[in-house]
Amino acid sequence: MTNIDTTLDMAFYAYNQNDFETAEELVRDILTISPSNGDALYLLGLIAYRSNALEPAEKLLYEAVKLYPNSQQYELALAGVLQKDGRLDEALSFYEKYKNNPLVLSQIGYIYLQKGQNDFAKSAFEETLKHDSNCQNALIGLALLERQKENHEQALSILNQANQSEHNNTELYYQLAVQNRLCGYYKEALDWITKVLKIYKTASFLNEKGLILEKLDLCGTAQKTYEEAIDIDSYAPDSFANLANLYLKQNNYRRAEEYYKKALALDCDFLQAHHNLAIALCKQDRKAEGLEHYRSALLINPHHISSLYNLAMILEEMGEYSEAAGLYFNILTLKSHPELIDFRIANTLSCLAELNKKGYKEALNFAKGWVKHFSENNIARHVLNALTHNQKDNTYLNNYVKMLFDSFAETYDDTMHHLESTVLDTVIHLIDNLPQQSFENILDLACGTGKFGTLLNKPFKNLTGVDISEKMLKIAAKQGVYSNLIHQDIHTYLDEIHIRYDLIVAVELTNYLADVTPLIQRVSHCLTDDGYFLFSIEQTQKEDIWLSLQGRYQYRETYIQSILEKYNLVAKQIHKIDLRKEGKSTEKGVLFVCQKRHNN
Length: 600
Description:
By secondary structure, the chain is of the alpha/beta class.
């Protein structure tokens, strides 16, 4: 054995021990003596590849292949570098020469996976398994396909199958860490990534550990892990972005901004970094800068739903209703609808319609197009009716109201507080001043989140809440105040009950009734003699019943009084109230305190 052969053996041994510095020093000594040594060029290319220096790795391996054109080992190493560099077709041209090799066939599957040709990828992986049923690379590939479809438990099952082999596979352990995290098995994920890092430490492995630690609420340790990843590889944008994400989660927006910008300096096309930087900037009330980064994200991917949605919301807040509406409709055409998108459109179009005649016309055209392309959408129909003040078409109304309050259930109380709604406080004050010392049975119609029950001061025996929104009722149940909570349309409930109530309350209910007459008629039937009915209306002077641009029903006070008189109810008190803020104005309403008239 020559001195060169001995030195090569030493270099390969050092490389396999992850001692790249020693391996590179030995290889360069060989190339000084023998510049055309293929194995030395090959090993130096591998070292460059492991250091993520793809361009030098490619040059070294191309040189080795040029010197030894029939070397499978050299060509496959070159194909791996080209694949990592995103030059997939070039890599495939080398892999195709050796596709009878199961491991090579599995790499062809990964090429197709990277190209988004999942059917071809699956076929390659399955063909590999026909030759070698325990091929870990092919099983990992099939697991990745399941992960893309968000079949996380199935992906984990395949990875566990791959792990039946006694062969150590760092990539498999890494994917097991990722998949356990995605399945919510964070302790198991941490065990796997710890095992990986004992074998080999890279920025990507440390980043995965950081993500797992965050899930375990070990944010301080996660931060140190991301910082370690940056120390190992200061050119990996993911490490900076993950650290920025952690700062963003902690509401440390300035530090988040700093690290997102570092990530973008390394990769200006890092879509998620642009998106999250926009969030950090907007949180610092720097919306103009934030808008630019949302736009940058959309230049990279025009169909990025989160950026489209957030950009539209900011434009809506800034009063740019026309552009905001256009972005919302773009999202609808992508058939991937974030929660509340329909109601965001509804609000945007009502604001646009209120601007001026041009805005109204534009909003109307938007609404017509919405109904035309989404004819089954009850919200679209209601918005069009609101813009044309068509209060007669209400066959869809119950579905609309259910969707509205199911969507806003989690944020309803906060929203009403933000809108400075005080009607419930006024109702409680009026009940406190009624002559009755206590109530036997109270009915809260459209009880929503149960806020009324939590504010009620006067003693009672039974408190029943009825609402069409199941999600609202789930929140009301947590209040622990109501004797009964009923998920039902209020008219159906009032028709079916045999009990009589001595207090019935309906706050912010009539806004979503096309006519109050059926309600008042049923309430009168369900009240005890001398029983009280407290309810609010949004007021209008236009007609007896008016469907506003905001999609709520308003009533003329004299019309309400005539209905009360017809059904044996006397308005003992009538209070003009401010219902809520509506943009820069205040929505006016009327609160009625009615009592059942004695039948003499």
